[in-house]
Amino acid sequence: QVQLQESGPGLVKPSQTLSLTCTVSGGSITGNSYYWIWIRQPPGKGLEMIGYIRYSGSTYYSPSLKSRTSISRDTSKNQFTLQLSSVTPEDTAVYYCARGKSEDDSFDAWGQGTQVTVSS
User: How many CA atoms are closer than 13 Å to the CA of 90, on its beta-carbon side?
Assistant: First the structure.
């Protein structure tokens, strides 16, 4: 059973870079049936996909966040990382990592989520 766990600071100052890591256990992030996703949910709003990294290492970013987003991975640690630069209070949200299935684009595993607040 694959498990995902987000980690990182819960408080980030405006204009700084938000960095979160997702540690995956029970499955390899280089397996070719899956891709690895970052999603967020601002308070009172719906889920928003930030982007993902495929088993090959290629990435996709949401157009609305693309200029500020970088997703990378460390295969030796079975982790993937989100960096979101120049944050503002509008980036305050619960951030989730998840696994997507290439065959049908369903999300079959989620982390528990981590609250990130952008405030001075």
Answer: 5
Q: pLDDT tens for residues 50-74?
A: 999 998 999 999 999 999 999 999 9
Contacts of 67-76 with CB under 8 Å at 24 or more apart are 71/38, 73/29, 73/36, 75/29, 75/30
- pLDDT digits over 64-106, tens only? 999 999 999 999 999 999 999 999 999 999 999 999 998 888 9
Residue 35 DSSP class: E
Extract the tokens encoding 38.
């970052």
CA distance 114 to 57: 24
Q: Which residues contact 6 (CB under 8 A, 6 or more apart)?
A: 20, 21, 22, 95, 96, 97, 111, 112, 113, 114
- Residue among 84, 106, 102, 111 at smallest CA distance from 12: 84
